[in-house]
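Fill-in record for histidine kinase.
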Amino acid sequence: MTASNAPIRCLLYPSLGEVREHVRVELFARALSERMGRPVVMSMAPTYEFLEAELAAGRVEMAWGTAEQCDAFEPQARAVLRAVRSGSHHYHSAFICRADAPLTLETLRGKRVAWVAQRSTGGHLLPVRHLESLGLRPETLFSEQRFLGTYRKALDAVLRGESDVCALFCNHTDAHAMRATLTSYLGADAPLLMPFLFTISTLADGLILTKRLPEADAQALISVLTRMNTDGAGLEMLMGPFRVEGFVRSPGPGAPVSSPRPSSGAEYLAGELDAEGRCLRLWSPSGRAFGLDVRGAEGRKLEESLGTAASKPLMSLLQAVLRGGSDGRLEYRLTVDGDERVYAAEITPCVPSPGDTSVRLGLLVRDVSGLRALEDPLYRLASFPLLHPEPLLELGMDGELRFANPATHVAFQDLVEKGAEHPLVHAALTWAWRGAPPGEPAPTVHLDGRYWELTVAQLWDPPGLRVFARDVTLRKQMEARLFQADRLSALGSLAAAVGHEMNNPLAFVLANLSYIREEMDRLKQPLLNGTPLPRADLEDMMEALGETVEGATRLKHIVQDLRTLSRKPPEHRARVAVQPVLENALKLLRGELQHRARLERDFHDLPTVDADEARLTQLFLNLLLNALQQMDAQDAAHNVLRVAAYTSEDGEVVVEVQDSGKGLSQDALAHIFEPFATARPNSTGLGLSVSHTIVTGLGGTLRAESREGRGTLLTVTLPAAVAVAESLRAC
């Protein structure tokens, strides 16, 4: 089976929040990509439930799951690779409290607990199961239970006194090993906390390889991941997000607890020393360090246990810590079994027990060879914000500026001075607070003649925003020029459309004015002589004047209604009877009708509609004009314009306008309501587009049916006006 070249998507559970952990995750993805010869893309799941849903739906090739998720999905996965920490692929959970306020199982009642997350194994589920196995229910045992999202936040809550106890995963039920884990989270504050209770063990969390991944790729990944920590490359880059030293294929949920396995790639040593460098306790996951067996080292000096080469740097560090009275750290190289390794050593003064005057020092030595081998790509990745040519900044949720690269300070020189009041910061915060829906364009800020398009990403631990600002001034200028050119083109087409739309009402306005002028000339002398005028003559003139006013008003509304494609015009909705409006539109087109077609009417009683009468008149004029223009004037004797109006079974108003013209092709019919879409010469194609806008604005529909050689049918459906009593009830 041939492996695919498509990206492998890996989803991670959401308790990883720190920026540095995201960097290490990216570095891990790059390391895997290089070894697989195939891109590996990693992303954080927003929730544990989301990760499970993606796994269940088969949308990811790989996922980093909790211990429970690994157990649940193992039966249907290609493989599950359990994380190895301290030589074991099982782990426990430790209850942590303040060192100056020690707790026991018996004194837990009434205390406040800070859990990590409801689906976190080491930070919630495992300690809860342990308590329940002892007959203790957390809801009655603790006075307060909080879920804070990450181990660091839970530990910080205990440090600050906001909670009394939290839970932290641990690989061995050993207080000295826990000191190393606490130090990796809290640094110099680690001695302020202490473990006081350990749970039973569970299989570790790890990587779930799904069946979406081809078998060949799955086997390649298994090979890469299980060998990475023993082939000299190491997985030290994972110490931040995963705190692992390797992987082992899962033996299955029911497998017994494993004993630590030897590991040459990420050994570490933890212990306690006295002021003379004598080992009070010394422990290694594999039982070996620096190529030597260190079991049974208690009571012996470091040199006897580790040899001269390994102990000499440690003794120098010990003396420096004793002189300075504070923590010390040293990194050094050492050749072990023919390979040059890099070690990081830390020595920390221990908090003395009450009544104990002896000096005790905590020792932690880690093999960091893998990390050092990856420093160059790590620095290249981490230097991206500094060297990025466009502004990049990080903000707190209150607008506090946490970081800005040099390009940011060059582009926005008043950023520090204005702080949260700066338009860039304000736009980013507004964007985040508003929660813009997916697909909405990114915010753009206009500053000092330049346009900046922002990309805003949420940070969770600690909460904040990462903002990229991209200079899009040239693009905006180009868009403005294109818009202006398009606008001028549209204005030319609109001018032709205005002339076409206004031609008929203008023609009968001029005709009526000419008729009135002729009548006034004819009746001028009798009027001057005081001779009574015939009543019929006056009524004809008044009717002509009324039609003239009506035509002038029609011209006014035509100009207004031509704006409907660009922006919504003012409306004056009222109850409108449809049939008189339709009759009026036919009357306005009577001259055109005489030369084009025979009119067939089929009008029935209609309910009123809520509409603007002028807009409705424009709608019917457009439809009737379109129908007339579809028929050849030379065939007027055979042309038929059929206009029907009736009430549908649903109580809606239906108006049909059907011509006997040439009809439309299916391609032309598909675009009939688009602006400027027309098959006729000298036509702008605006009439039906405007009509569609009017109908949909009234809550109705406009449909078109046509066949070549059979004519076109346009059907308008409008909702009937809501009864007054019904509208009042709706309010």
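KEY FINDING: Residues 163 and 565 are 62 Å apart (CA to CA).
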